[in-house]
Amino acid sequence: MSGKKNSRSRSAARRKTSRPGDRQRIKLLLAALFVVGFLILCLVVLGHLRQTYHSVPPPPIVPEVVESPDRSSLILDIQLELDSTLWRAGVPFDRLRIVADAEKVSYEVRAGMPAEKVLTELAERLIALSPDARLDLSTPQKTMTIRHGGEVLFRIRFLEDEKKVLPPAPKPKLAIIVDDLGADLGTAKALLKIDLPLTFAVMPHVGKSREVAQLAHSRKREVMLHIPMEPQSYPAADPGRGALFNRLSRRELEERMAGYLKEIPHVVGGNNHMGSSFTENQDGMAVVFESLGKRKLFFIDSRTTPRSVAPGVARQAGIPFAARDVFLDNVRDVEAISREIRKLAGLARRNGQAIGICHPYPQTIEALSREAETLRMQGIEVVPASSLVRPPSS
């Protein structure tokens, strides 16, 4: 009897502890533990991702061609320092006569030699550019010689006391092409405020291509077709919708070129957007030049590859041609771009003309605005790109 009573008591106790309310609380507790565990796991994963993201910097934006320093670049840097020295010494550029040959560049300056302090600074700047650069002075003969590794690069004669009259040198000319235009009107309007006859290279198949070309033409700026072409780094670098690719047939290339020229009004010539691979394609470039030649348009090679076949194919096709000399804004810094503009001006003084290419970056717009007056003061004539292309026979 006592055993049965104890059994009933234990059953009652079990029923008491397993009431519905108790079971609900257990479920809630388990759910809470699951949620807390899930949140902890999420925090661990997010922390790992955050650490990984910050430990690997985003890939830099790299131009299709990053030109390594070479002899020609060094010569331009040296010439920039020489020009800056004469400028600081109060020598206006209309009192210079520059003659370049295969061996050296000769300056004839209708002024006295700069002060010793100025020349010492020039010598220090040259050494900073290259330990092999040296400035030699001959005070009795009123000459300066700039050498590099024993090679004479520049010889400067000062003619202050001589009665020799220098014949007026032709005014050096340069053209500045702004690539990648057409995405918006605001950038085009900002460029039009700069008091320089910039050349607008407009991309097809972007938001405001036609409107930008029409606006530039209405403001008497030259319009070029900025032809998208396959780069060597494709598909990592995308030349844009409807670009010219090596795999396309002749008919497809012709149709795409016709479409570009129909879309962009007022074009007088073209240049390549990217294209380090396509401009090495003899057959593909022949199609491009045939399309341009039918409309009597010129081509300027942006020189995104040293193996471009554009010069030879253009000559065969009989279209006017030129090539870019300097990329002005590989470094997106106002001071760096201004320096490249001055180097371009020095190249124009040396060779009679030069072509620079830039992009519609805010830093580039500021640098162009800043250097516009300086170019005029230096006697540099900024001209539309068409003024500097060679005729087919040359």
State the main characteristics.
single chain; 394 residues; alpha/beta; 11 helices
Helix content: 40-55%
Radius of gyration of CA atoms, rounded to a whole number: 34 Å
Distance between the termini: 127 Å
Q: Give the overall silhouette.
A: globular
> Which blocks of ≥5 consecutive residues have pLDDT under 50?
48-63
Question: Strand pairing plus helix content: what structural class?
Answer: alpha/beta
Encode the helix/strand succession as letters: HHHEEHEEEEHEHEHEHEHEEHEHE
Which range does the strand content fall in? 15-25%
Strand count: 14
The largest pleated sheet is described as: 9 strands, parallel
Q: How many helices in DSSP terms? A: 11
Mean pLDDT: 86
Quick recap:
The chain has 394 residues and is α/β, with parallel strands linked by helices. It has helices at residues 2-17, 20-55, 71-88, 116-129, 185-192, 209-218, 250-263, 282-294, 310-317, 334-351, 362-377; strands at 96-100, 105-109, 133-138, 143-148, 151-158, 173-181, 199-202, 223-229, 267-274, 298-301, 321-323, 326-327, 353-358, 381-382.
Question: How would you describe this protein?
Answer:
The strands form 2 sheets. Strands 6, 7, 8, 9, 10, 11, 12, 13 and 14 form a 9-stranded parallel sheet that branches. The chain has 11 helices and 14 strands. Helix 5 packs parallel to helix 6. The chain is globular. It has 394 residues and is an alpha/beta fold.
How is the secondary structure organized here?
Blueprint: H1 2-17, H2 20-55, H3 71-88, E1 96-100, E2 105-109, H4 116-129, E3 133-138, E4 143-148, E5 151-158, E6 173-181, H5 185-192, E7 199-202, H6 209-218, E8 223-229, H7 250-263, E9 267-274, H8 282-294, E10 298-301, H9 310-317, E11 321-323, E12 326-327, H10 334-351, E13 353-358, H11 362-377, E14 381-382
Parallel strand pairs: 2-5, 6-7, 6-13, 6-14, 7-8, 8-9, 9-10, 10-11, 12-13
Antiparallel strand pairs: 1-2, 3-4, 4-5
